[in-house]
Write a structure and sequence with these properties.
Elements (H helix, E strand, L loop, with lengths): L1 E2 L2 H21 L6 E7 L3 H16 L3 E7 L5 H13 L5 E4 L9 H7 L11 H8 L8 H12 L8 E5 L6 H9 L8 E5 L5 H8 L4 E4 L17 E4 L3 E4 L7 E4 L4 H4 L5 E2 L6 H19 L1
Parallel strand pairs: 1-11, 2-3, 2-4, 5-6, 5-7, 7-8, 8-11
Antiparallel strand pairs: 9-10
Helix pairs in contact: 1-10, 6-10
Length: 292
């Protein structure tokens, strides 16, 4: 059984990017620069943004962390994004979600220039992705593709079952894996909350590659996994646990202990897709820099 270790795969991506930034520095050029906007002090968001800034530093990227209180107006946030759009030294812009309820996520995402949308959420980039055109792939799906590439997981002609249809993971993954690309050409079944549970189980049992992104801890059990399947767990949830030092444990959407008894390869949580999401973000930032 192969553990699809995100730490190892992301380290390979970052090593490649570091080589590029060192070459840029040696040539007297500036390196890619990512601007991250954080609104409020949500603990999980703080952790995610700090990790992104740390990874930028490790790959030789410049980064800026721009903080706003959670009572910031939508107009002030839009004004800052406009300034970043116009700054030629900023290659990528990301706004950490979720945002406070008084701010419209869609308006904010659409205000980021498509050429700096390194999270890959702008409708222009989503449209280009759907048509198979060159674009910024959403960071988590891109990270999954990079992991499949690193571990040489064959997707061509394979039956992929995606459970979850979010715009961030499930829907783009179903499009990318069915597309004509190196980590694609699979035939894809997409299950979601309105798929009868017995049908979801039935489809999962037929999957050569099972990708789960539903946000329900340990939703997938051993009975749902085809022997020898590849299982990609995108879920990450804090579950209260009084016996844990921090008072909680991180759980994925797959029961890992059961999965490893049947699957040929499984991503751990934590230490799997989450690290590859940042690798995808860094790759997109380099792409934006090269196009700038």
């Amino acid at each position: 059984m192969l553990i699809l270790d995100g730490k190892i795969a992301s380290a390979a991506v970052k090593a490649s990017l570091l080589q590029k930034t060192k070459a840029l520095q040696a040539a007297g050029k500036r390196t890619p620069h990512l601007a991250a906007i954080l609104v409020g002090n949500n603990g999980a968001s703080e952790t995610y943004v700090a990790s992104k800034v740390k990874n930028c530093d490790e790959t030789g990227f410049g980064s800026s962390l721009i903080r706003f209180n959670d009572d910031v107006t939508e107009a002030d946030l839009l004004a800052k994004i406009k300034a970043l759009n116009e700054d030629k030294n900023i290659d990528g812009i990301l706004v950490q979600l979720p945002l406070p309820k008084h701010i419209n996520d869609e308006i904010i995402i659409e205000s980021i220039h498509p050429d700096k949308d390194v999270d890959g959420f702008h409708p222009t980039n989503i449209g280009r992705m759907v048509q198979g055109m060159d674009t910024f792939i959403p960071a988590t799906p891109y990270g999954v593709l990079l992991m499949l590439e690193y571990y040489k997981i064959e997707t061509k002609g394979k039956h992929v079952v995606v459970i979850g249809r979010s715009n961030i993971v499930g829907r783009p993954m179903s499009i990318l894996l069915s597309g004509d690309r190196p980590q694609g050409n699979a035939y894809v079944t997409l299950c979601h909350r309105y798929t009868p549970k017995e049908e979801t189980v039935k489809m999962a049992q037929q999957a050569d590659i099972l990708l789960v992104a539903v946000g329900i801890p340990e939703f997938v059990t051993a009975e749902m996994i085809k022997p020898g399947a590849v299982v990609i767990d995108v879920g990450i949830t804090r579950v209260e646990d009084a016996t844990a030092k921090k008072g909680f444990r991180i759980k994925g959407d797959v029961n890992y202990e059961e999965a490893i008894t049947k699957a040929a390869a499984v991503t751990p949580v934590p230490g799997g897709v989450g690290l590859m999401t940042i690798a995808g973000l860094l790759m997109n930032t380099m792409k934006a820099y090269e196009a700038n």
